[in-house]
Amino acid sequence: xxxxQRILGVAPEVERDATDDRWWMDGxxxxxxxxxxxxxxxxxxTLSAVFACVRLISETVGALxxxxxxxxxxxxxxxxxxxxxxxxxxxxxAQHITRPEFVGFMMAHVLLRGNGYAQIVEPTREYPxxxxxxxxxxxxxxxxxxxxxxxxRVMDESGRSQVLLPDEMFxxxxxxxxxxxxxxxxxxxxxxxxxASAAESYGGRFFGNGSRPSGILRTDGKLSETAAxxxxxxxxxxxxxxxxxxxxxxxxxxxxxxxxxxPEDAQFLETREFQxxxxxxxxxxxxxxxxxxxxxxSWGTGIVEMSLGFVTYTLLPWLRRFEQAxxxxxxxxxxxxxxxxxxxxxxxxxxxxxYGAYAIGRQWGFLSINDVRRxxxxxxxxxxxxxxxxxxxxxxxxxxxxxxxxxxxxxxxxRESAARxxxxxxxxxxxxxxxxxxxxxxxxxxxxxxxxxxQFVAEALCIxxxxxxxxxx
Length: 473
Hints:
The chain has 15 helices and 13 strands. It is an alpha+beta fold.
């Protein structure tokens, strides 16, 4: 360091290692926090709450299938398995990277750094498919040209930079304040994470000292500076760290006095749990999903409700960002093709509730078969757009006014109901014939049967009681 640098307090320029991504990230090695801890994305991942949130979101999104669909003329869709992009997104985005690895990689970078990048590599003779090769976000800088066009400057491992145009880069953004780059949760949450790290470090130092608070050795005698130093060193060697639980023998009038407070009194454990809850809030993750189960939750009273809340309010926005970024950067004919994550597995636990709601919708006529099938990501079926009308809400309709198929259906029901009425009459008359004595007795039995038979006829044929009684008479 030169004389001028020492006077001005300026650190000398250090040669950057091109293989170390931390040199290229904003803020160098991390921003200083009030707790004295420097926070950057890599350091933040050493915090259990941050790691759990990033792992949960990135691995959950990475586990979802990502097929490409083709829109059909009838409003349906089918998997576009012949589209070259289908295999890239559904199976293998790059030659040595699977889809769960790629999606999880991109999501982790967006969560920690606000942006995820992948270079679009065109097919070659060696590998006949397009590839999406992930790039560490700390190696990418977005630049604007003189005419306002966006381009990406990428630093390679040798320290050289290359420029990629928008059609050569797949860019996944998180929450953005300028429409160009996403903001990093770590940047805005560094105070929360700094305090969490400081509390964790304090706990490590505390337990590293044998879980015993500091204290003093007292004596009524007078010790020289040399004797006091020797006594302190001997005490630390014999009763500090791993020797903390050994029995101490005090002599020469020495006594031990504890002077520090217990960590429970300082709410040490409560502070750590509170900071973990704060980290979960920054990432939008229900605390119970990263192991924080001591407090109550406002996400619902059951696992299904809490899981649906996580899917709806945390995962779904990320899925839509990913899908729209694919449409913008990778799909040319976006009016015909699109990619969509399959989320049925995430809500499969509530299938009974869904199907019950569908049944009610079908029964009361505000859902058709195809309405239900579209909600379940299934193609429509012929004739599935008809809506049922509850019987007690139908207007009087002649058979001639309804389609032939419907009329035939109702004629079949009417014949079956009439046959039921006749079978009941035949059975009743046969019983009377075997039990009665003479014509008069039989005739009286018939009159008694038909006197009450009208009610059964009205119910079986769904007609008014007057018409049914007339038939019985």
